[in-house]
């Protein structure tokens, strides 16, 4: 499949679980010939948010189901941008020992659903396992299909003028 789309994966990770998931997604996007860039949250230029067709956000959960401090700027940037044609996905790792399992994923999900075109959600228990590869693959396909559909409609509209 040859897709003309620009995708960013932006993640926060302390002990490496979410990083592992982000790297798996990165490899899968590459396998779909997508132009994809992997960013740690501290390296992601928030002003470039609008330069991508799709953004996959990865986060661990902190405190009592909270979004990590370093992810809050990105959360607010999506709210401010409010671009319904921006395809997004939210993924993360958590520990079901806690009451709010992957609570940060849920908080991002609710916001991204309102302000962007949310295509996929993925929660993984701690370290990604073999069976999670298929779930990652489904997230990638959901994003690729959603962007292609948007581009198809946009090209159709452009052709009318
Ligand atoms: C102080 C602390 C609070 C946490 N709170 C939650 C929580 O509320 N919900 C949850 O699902 N996981 C919680 N976790 C688990 C982490 O989100 C989980 O270990 C995650 O995989 C860490 O991701 P990382 O390896 O990418 O840093 C907590 C972990 C710590 C140390």
TrEMBL record:
InterPro entries: Flavodoxin (IPR050619), Flavodoxin/NO_synth (IPR008254), Flavodoxin_CS (IPR001226), Flavoprotein-like_sf (IPR029039). Residues 7-148 form the Flavodoxin-like domain. Gene3D superfamilies: 3.40.50.360. One of its GO terms (molecular function) is electron transfer activity. Its cofactor is FMN. The keyword Endoplasmic reticulum does not apply. Keywords: Electron transport, Flavoprotein, FMN, Transport. It comes from the Bacteria. Pfam families: Flavodoxin_1. Low-potential electron donor to a number of redox enzymes. Belongs to the flavodoxin family. This is Flavodoxin I. It comes from Mesobacillus persicus.
């Amino acid at each position: 499949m040859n897709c003309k789309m620009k995708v960013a994966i932006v993640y926060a990770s302390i002990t490496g679980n979410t990083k592992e998931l982000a790297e798996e997604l990165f490899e899968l996007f590459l396998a779909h010939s997508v132009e994809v860039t992997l960013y740690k949250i501290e390296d992601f230029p928030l002003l470039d948010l609008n330069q991508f067709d799709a953004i996959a956000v990865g986060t661990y959960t902190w405190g009592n189901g909270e979004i990590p401090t370093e992810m809050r700027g990105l959360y607010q940037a999506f709210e401010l941008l409010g671009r319904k044609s921006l395809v997004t996905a939210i993924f993360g790792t958590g520990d079901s020992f806690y009451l709010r399992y992957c609570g940060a994923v849920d908080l991002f999900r609710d916001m991204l659903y309102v302000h962007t075109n949310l295509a996929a959600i993925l929660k993984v228990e701690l370290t990604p396992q073999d069976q999670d590869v298929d779930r990652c693959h489904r997230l990638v396909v959901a994003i690729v299909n959603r962007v292609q559909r948007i581009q198809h409609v946009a090209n159709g509209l452009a052709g009318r003028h």
